Task: structure prediction
Amino acid sequence: MSVLSHLPAGAQSTAERPRDSGGRRMSDESFINLLVASVAIVLFLAASAMVPNFFQFQNMVNLVTNNWAVISLGVGVTFLLVSGNFDLSVGGQVALSGVLAVWFAQSTAGANPLATGLGLPTWLAMACALAGAMAIGGLNALFVVRFRVPSIIVTLGTMMVARGIAKVITEGSQRNTNLPDDFGALGNLAMFGTSIKFPVVLMVVLVLVAVFIERKTVFGRLTYWIGANPVTSRLSGVDNARHLTCLYLFSSAIAGVVGILLASEFKSGFSARGTLMEFDALVIALLGGVAIAGGFGSVIGMFFGALILAVVTSAATGLVLSPDWQFILKAVAVFLAIMTQTWALARRNR
Result:
């Protein structure tokens, strides 16, 4: 009998539930996705009524394009949350990979230490920077899988380690001089004759691939199973350690690419870049209905969660609220959205 035939109900969140008297019932995951999408639409319409010029096509596009980095990070964070684990190190990895890419690419003949690098070709500098970010992911996996340290503690620690290394390399500032001309090409590449840049297209492709993996592959189904019941999955022959290692490396690879693309876009390696991105990625996953205990959630839900956060943030800016009030508004929106999801799902399954 196939391993997948033993999947518990919580792990089969992408499948439809059995027929009832009313016909085939929508799965809990689809129900949450529909609810989150509805909330995003309602919030957008409410913001359009309160903020001048908010209801415009370009503004709709900007809600996605301006948040490509957080949405990309949210993919890796979502997979790990579904497996019952955290990754709070992605913001630090964004800073580290960007700083490393710049440092490796800078000429060796700089006028000062911050203008002097290793002089590697741009493609090699970016590849080495990606390897540096994935080393942090490997460190996460080592402590979580091998030494069984809680993932929230490990990834908080590695977040500080990654950002600390970035600060040492930049001396607490940034590196933005003595770079080759082609360093900024990738982050600023316009696609299809439009103003849409390569990083945005890459984010869309990443989300689509992640949805396919989540819904159509054994790897995706096993991620749900491990999150729903890790003991049962292990006793059934699933290599939990190998699976979680792959997830951490996947998440760090995404963070590394995001950091490199941001460094390319701005032609600088900034040690403070990516600050709080790890928490934004966690928030949009939770807004999208991902269960913090694992075994439930989806990348599609995370995407709509990102739209909710983007609408609230953009509306707060349009209303000229102070940054302090913007934080409060975002916190209230997140709290209400998560409570609404919990209440709706509980009421549905009475």
Q: What stands out?
A: The chain has one domain: 27-46+56-348. The two ends are 33 Å apart (CA to CA). The chain is about 65% helix and 0% strand. Confidence is low (pLDDT under 50) at residues 8-22.
